[in-house]
Amino acid sequence: MPNGRKTVEVDLPEYEADQLNARAQMESLAPARYLGVHVLRSAYGPLHPEVIAYERRDDLGQVGTLSDGGDRE
C-alpha cells in the first residue's frame, strides 16, 4: 500500500458490518478508513495522532442551533 499503510481484513457479524458500512457512508469515508480510526482508538487510545486528526476534521451539516440566530421558520 502507498504511504506506508496496510489494509487488514476483519471478521464481523453481517449485521454489524452492514451498520458500520452505513456509518462510514454517512461520514463520507471509505469503510476501511472508518474502521481503521476505530481500531487505532481502541488499541492506542484517543490521543493517537490519526484519531485526533479524525476528530478535528470538518463535519458536514448545520453549524450552530436554530435558536442562535433567532427564529427561522
From TrEMBL:
Protein name: Uncharacterized protein
Species annotation: Chitinasiproducens palmae
Phylogenetic placement of the source organism: Bacteria, Pseudomonadati, Pseudomonadota, Betaproteobacteria, Burkholderiales
